[in-house]
Amino acid sequence: MAIFLIGISPWAALVVVAIGLNGLFSGVVIPATASMIGLETPRDAQSTVFGFNASSIALGFFFGPLIGGTVAATSGVPAALFVIAALSLVLATLLATGAREPPR
Predict the structure, then answer these.
(1) What digits encode the pLDDT tens for the residues 69-83?
(2) How many angstroms separate the CA atoms of 25 and 97, rounded?
């Protein structure tokens, strides 16, 4: 939702706060993903799964600006931010419904 806040922000200070929130959330999600992989994946498959995770992050860094730049060029920067926010909401919903706490 921090990206959505950037899209509707009327002030530069609010953009800075939203970018800070986005960084904070990223700083929580990335280690949590690595932890889930470590807990849920058998030891002999962990290197493969961690490799897929790293590859997906790299693909996101490639396709994200490509898609976002295309949307921004055709519909404007706020529209690109709203598309990113909508995709993030869809992914968060999938994660909330599909992720499970590992048994202890």
Answers:
(1) 899 999 998 898 888
(2) 19
